[in-house]
Amino acid sequence: MIPAMPGHTIDAFHRGGFWLAQPKGSGHRVGMDALMLAAAVPSGFDGRLADFGAGAGGAGLAVVSRCPGATVTLVEQSPEMAQFAAATLALPQNASLKDRALLLIADVTLAGRQRAAAGLADNSFDFVIMNPPFNAAIDRQTPDGLKNQAHVMTDDLFEHWIRSAAAIVRPRGGLAIIARPVSLAPLLAALTGRFGGARIVPVHARADEPAIRIVLRARLAARGALALCPPLVLHEGADNSFTARAAAINDGEASLFGD
Amino acid sequence: MIPAMPGHTIDAFHRGGFWLAQPKGSGHRVGMDALMLAAAVPSGFDGRLADFGAGAGGAGLAVVSRCPGATVTLVEQSPEMAQFAAATLALPQNASLKDRALLLIADVTLAGRQRAAAGLADNSFDFVIMNPPFNAAIDRQTPDGLKNQAHVMTDDLFEHWIRSAAAIVRPRGGLAIIARPVSLAPLLAALTGRFGGARIVPVHARADEPAIRIVLRARLAARGALALCPPLVLHEGADNSFTARAAAINDGEASLFGD
């Protein structure tokens, strides 16, 4: 048994396919969001992937755990969170994956030469995945003024993150993003003129409740029309257990778009 | 039996709740789209409703057929289509509804004083429903140049139709719109700063296929966040029969948002 760092836990994901060192009892712990985001990458993917806002590295490691030909660059701005990603990569349980994972401390909202200088060169990745940290800002119960500010910040955030993704992926390169339904308008606005052929999977906690998340996948400069796919339902039954599809995604045994 | 006008048919909807005179064998015949749009209006609605692009009057009459306290103004730009709406209102089968329905030949894309002069006064309706006629333009297999043009026209169309809806409904008045998923971005952009608290129901022909339509409902100047509701599935089984929910909507026995 590996002793946990103080204030941290070490947890298995994908039935032991990869492990994460992550902060104990904070809002930044890896959960279903990271696993659903990772599941948006096709199982046959075999190129360079960037994980924007990687945190402890959950989504990025879930991709390399499921896709044997993939390499990932975990991009995290916060040195505090990057510590966890570094500890994750140092875990002996992840020895078989660590040669396919890099950690980059960088601000994904940078533009132009500053972004390239920070390690995110134009046209250098095949796929970008992102789970923008806007959720907390919207969740907070705030007066209208602050809430409006949070919304404005969120709109800018999508614009800046997706601008960077469009710069660093090659033509026809992929983008996957997990967000809340409330962010659909700024998200689609930020995609316009950059990524096309978008497919959206709404995610519902239960079949009869409104969606709690959307997972969107698109390709740089693709022309296809936006498609709204059948939803993913996470839980069912009186005991609120995982549906078969959610369990397969949780365990790294299925992709979200069936490819 | 009532003889049909030449080139027309007279058809029952809502199990005989209302009838329509409509052109034979054209793309403008009333179908599930109009009935789903009408079903977005709460069953207890009892105010003035405008049906933009009313055609033969299907969606508007479906509302007054289901909502005893509702009155409708069918707004149609094309005199050719307005003929059918007029014939519909003259049908003896619709005698019990015709006192609650008006027909207005007007262009809903007008603005300012021109719009008011055309019969669409500011702040004079409680609800607007619309099925913008953009589908045909996008459906056509056209070269990229023309297709792009059609998309641009579509974006303008949402902007102009929703601008007019925002002008003519009272504060907190309702809007319902049926559109294709491909139109989600321009539709949400046109709502921004006007209608809020939007709820979207994706409509799937079958549960395992991408959505073919979205039905959106929102309120003028409301602040609520966008919600993505559980989808409506139209058909099921080997014989592709209506699901119970689709049949109830088709028959005017259920509303789409459960209210």
What would you call the shape of chain A?
A: globular
Query: What is the count of β-strands of chain A?
Result: 13
Distance between the termini of chain A: 36 Å
The arrangement of helices and strands of chain A along the chain is EEHEHEHEHEHHEHEEEEEEH
Structural class estimated from helices and strands of chain A: alpha/beta
The radius of gyration computed from the alpha-carbon positions of chain A, rounded to a whole number of angstroms, is 17 Å
Q: What level of helicity do the residues of chain A show?
A: 25-40%
Unreliable stretches covering 5 or more consecutive residues of chain A: 136-143, 145-152
Count of discrete alpha- or pi-helical segments spanning 4 or more residues of chain A: 8
Most extensive chain-chain interface: A-B, 27 and 27 residues
| Overall average residue pLDDT of chain A | 90
Oligomer: homodimer
Largest sheet data of chain A: 9 strands, mixed
Strand content of chain A: 25-35%
Description of the molecule:
Chain A has 259 residues and is α/β, with parallel strands linked by helices. Helix content of chain A is 31%, strand content 28%. Chain A has 8 helices and 13 strands. Chain A has helices spanning 32-39, 58-66, 79-90, 112-117, 135-139, 144-168, 184-191, 244-250; strands at 8-13, 18-23, 48-52, 71-76, 101-105, 125-130, 169-179, 195-204, 211-220, 227-228, 232-233, 235-236, 241-242. In chain A, the strands form 3 sheets. In chain A, strands 3, 4, 5, 6, 7, 8, 9, 10 and 11 form a 9-stranded mixed sheet that branches. In chain A, helix 1 packs across helix 2 and helix 6 (144-168) runs parallel beside helix 7. The first copy, chain A, is globular, with a radius of gyration of 17 Å. Chain A starts with 7 loop residues before the first strand and ends in a 9-residue tail after the last helix. Chains A and B meet through helix 7, strand 8 and strand 10 of A and helix 7, strand 8 and strand 10 of B.
